[in-house]
Amino acid sequence: METVWLSGFAFLAGLVDAVVGGGGLIQLPALLLFLPPDRAGDLAAILGTNKAASIWGTGMAVAQYAPRVRFRWHAVLPAAIIAFIFSWLGATAASHIDRAILEPVILLLLVGVAVYTFLRPSLGQVHTPLLTTHHERALGIGVGVVLGFYDGFFGPGMGSFLIFVFIGLFGFDFLNASASAKVVNFSTNLAAVLLFASTGRIWYRYAVPMAICQMLGSIVGTRLAVRKGNAFVRGLFLIVASLLIARFGWELTARWLNGG
């Protein structure tokens, strides 16, 4: 029965993630909630199973956006390639650094992103790339280094940060930023899946049906994004950013109350 529940939440996660990222807000808690008690304690395998399902949804989103959105590959591909490398390095470093140190910083960044987007209704409504090809390529490499490492090391909010960067720094609209973010996110997910698979930390019994539902949800999500346009993507972006802020705020408050 748990597979049915997990597949349903994977569909929803794929839909949301295809539009604005943040599918992990839905899928990861579902894994923690519905897995049998004897498996719920293996956090590494839970993360591996989550990534193994998510990558199929992300890949399907890229395939769906490709014929509908004009990618600026000279910016997106360098970011994706470098992000793959630094995601692997980030995942390797995760066991040596206390992630809790980052949480207040990430919370402040997310609040800043959400407030800035909310106060500027015109942000991301028009696709007007700001940089030359050379500068886009260089900035794409920088984005791959910073956010690739972040996704491998920590992860939550990666899709939101990518979309905001493509809008704020590159001048993309929400739809093009979301599509570009999926390419980079696919690359970082691939690094994580290879790492988890090499250590046997994926439960394929759950990952396979969840992957199928992720792809179906991704198809629905990308078509909604293309059909409804930038206003729809912007609204969902603010909702997901707000949920991420609530999550981090809750975790930090609980830790503070417990004296952690």
Structural key phrases:
single chain, 260 residues, mainly alpha, 10 helices, 77% helix, 0% strand
Quick rundown:
The chain has ten helices and no strands.
List the helices and strands in order: HHHHHHHHHH
Number of helices: 10
Helix fraction, binned, reads over 70%
Low-pLDDT runs of 5+ residues are none
Total discrete domains: 1
Percent strand equals: under 5%
Would you kindly provide a written description of the structure presented here, covering whatever features stand out?
There is one protein chain. This protein is mainly alpha-helical and 260 residues long. It has one domain. 77% of the residues lie in helices and 0% in strands. It has 10 helices and no strands. The chain is globular and about 55 Å long.
Chart the SSEs and their pairings.
Elements: H1 2-20, H2 24-34, H3 43-65, H4 73-93, H5 103-119, H6 133-153, H7 158-168, H8 174-198, H9 204-228, H10 230-257
Helix pairs in contact: 1-2, 1-3, 1-9, 2-3, 3-8, 3-9, 4-6, 4-8, 5-10, 6-7, 6-8, 7-8, 9-10
